[in-house]
Amino acid sequence: MAPQKKARNNQPQPPPQPSDYETDAAPAVDVPLPPPRSNEELNLSVLRRIYPDLDTIEHVTPYAALYTFNLETQQWEKLGIEGTLFLCQLTPSPTGAERFCAIIYNRRGLDNFYQELTSSDEMEISDPYVIIQGELVYGIWIFADPPPASTANCRVETAAKMMEVADRARASREATQPAAEVTDQVEHASSAPMGRQLSLRELFGQQREQDADFSIHNHNSHPMPPIAPAHPDVLGQLFRKAKQNHNGLG
After folding, report:
1. How far apart are CA 114 and CA 140, in angstroms?
2. CA torsion angle 63 160 53 176 (round to 10)
3. Shortest CA distance to 131 belongs to which of 165, 159, 167, 103?
4. What is the enclosing helix (H) or strand (E) of 67?
5. Domain spanning 49-181+197-246: which CATH class is it, in words?
6. Per its UniProt record, what InterPro entries does this chain match (predicted)?
7. Closest Cα to residue 105, out of 45, 56, 52, 63?
8. Which of 5, 57, 120, 128 has its CA 20 to 30 A from that of 98?
9. Tens digit of each residue's pLDDT (9 = 90 or more) over 9-29
10. What's the pLDDT tens digit per position in 217-243?
């Protein structure tokens, strides 16, 4: 007997489905996205790559420019460092004292400005800039729009904050300083000559100038106003005297 043939299924078959990698591959594991970070966290992460001892950001100013005072010409000279100004708290010193610094994150080059703020005696507020005594005499120009803009008080607030953290650093350093070091300093001061280092307040106290129209729009085309001495070379003599006293030569 001949084998019987199976009856054909005349029902229509569904068309073949297209195949791609996503449908053929095993289902992917859901990986949660990292939580979004604030601007302060992002800024701190960037700055810590350059300055590992940064702890927190205390204050941010959108725009500042750096100048230095030339003793020969007795004028301010621009250093080509401009950008956001950060006031940061650093990790404590070995004795546990608080430390703070000012950083201008440069938009125009690779060189940033970094200066630890140790005392308000080494600073002077002279609108429109803050003067700091470091390796050089630095002048930080801080941008502020005229009222009623949101940045109208930026210059005043930033300058006050810089003085505040500088005094906090000095007070904390003095409070944590070993008693033996304090005694040595007192004995050294009593045996030192009568000459003393002139403070920035004395150097610049009579040299302040006002420049209310100095804005970010004409900042690059107008140099920083020079500090004109009351008498020829008086300011230069004060600087040289201060430097000699600082080096123990006065």
Report:
1. 12
2. 170
3. 159
4. strand 54-70
5. mainly beta
6. Dcp1 (IPR010334), PH-like_dom_sf (IPR011993)
7. 63
8. 128
9. 566 666 666 655 555 555 566
10. 445 543 444 433 334 444 455 445 545
